[in-house]
Write a structure and sequence with these properties.
259 residues, alpha/beta, binds NADP nicotinamide-adenine-dinucleotide phosphate, elongated, 12 helices
């Protein structure tokens, strides 16, 4: 794939994030064409970046682009994609959740070069980790500009990372419950959130820096025998915290695989 001219069908949250990341100076692509919906997001992108133009319709996006990114919601994807004409061999990158390559190729109807990816909103700041399937040097290079690309050798690996990406709201939810708990018990407003956000950032940095040490071992390192961390970890497990997490991941993986 040569993404010098990239087009987006579906100009929503994730397109906004990708375009902003790609066009941060120095820009990674020379021209971006976006579809007219959502009108407000498309207009804002065109106002913010000289490289962005708004196409008249979805077909005009395809016709203007080397690489076409499909970024509509899964519920309307078939209607949108099957009504369009792609060039044989054209590069297509789908970020549509829970819709596999075989299904997409059936809707596209010609033999395109299709790759799937799971960009996350952090790509806007070039800090996103993005799963890519199947492995593809050009798409991996694109997402390396936007953070880190993780190329998956199999659909099973890709589905597992899709499940992992579903943890975002839960992790923020744990932060929310903890910060609220602190403030409800007397900590001055705002201090709980600031403390918890920094604590989680430091823990993530520790896991990233010590990538050869097993996470279980890192967790034990913080759990001094008879200490406070050990008590919370033990209570969390005893009260079903670990089981609830595994159950939730199994559930979302089953949904992803059923797609
Ligand atoms: N957000 C994420 O973090 C994330 C991460 C990875 C993958 N994804 C996937 O990326 C896709 C887009 O997600 P999103 O969060 O960006 O959703 P979104 O904000 O709802 O964006 C979807 C966009 O599609 C537009 N649209 C509706 N009908 C259309 C049509 N017929 N032709 C062209 N565009 C049309 C919508 O415009 P209107 O507003 O005018 O209806 C909207 O702007 C989904 O499949 C999602 O699963 C999202």
């Amino acid at each position: 794939m040569d993404p010098r001219k990239i087009g987006f069908i579906g100009t929503g949250t994730i397109t906004d994030a990708m375009v902003r990341g790609l066009l941060t100076n120095p820009a990674a692509v020379s021209r971006v064409t976006v579809s007219p919906r959502n009108a407000k997001i498309a207009r804002q992108l065109a106002d913010d970046f000289a490289e962005v133009s708004i196409a008249a319709d979805n077909q005009a996006v395809i016709d203007a682009s080397d690489m076409v990114v499909l970024a509509v919601r899964p519920q309307i994807a078939q209607d949108v994609v099957s009504g369009l004409t792609f060039r044989k061999g054209q590069s297509v990158l789908s970020v549509i959740a829970a819709t596999d390559c075989k299904t997409l190729l059936g809707w596209i109807g010609v033999d395109v070069h299709l790759v799937q990816a799971i960009p996350l909103p952090f790509v806007a700041d070039r800090e996103g980790v993005t799963a890519v399937f199947p492995p593809d040097a050009h798409v991996a290079a694109l997402f390396s500009v936007l953070g880190t690309a993780v190329e998956c050798e199999t659909k099973e690996e890709y589905d597992l990372l899709a499940a992992a990406s579903s943890l975002m709201s839960t992790v923020l939810g744990i932060m929310d419950v903890s910060a609220a708990w602190l403030e409800e018990r007397g900590l001055a407003k705002g201090k709980g959130r600031a403390y918890i956000a920094s604590l989680f950032a430091s823990l993530s940095q520790t896991a990233l820096r010590s990538d050869t040490v097993a996470l279980k071992e890192l967790s034990s390192e913080f759990a001094t025998k008879g200490g406070l961390n050990e008590q919370v970890l033990s209570d969390f497990h005893k009260n079903g915290g670990r089981d609830a997490l595994i159950l939730a991941l199994d559930g979302v993986l089953a949904r992803i695989k059923g797609a």
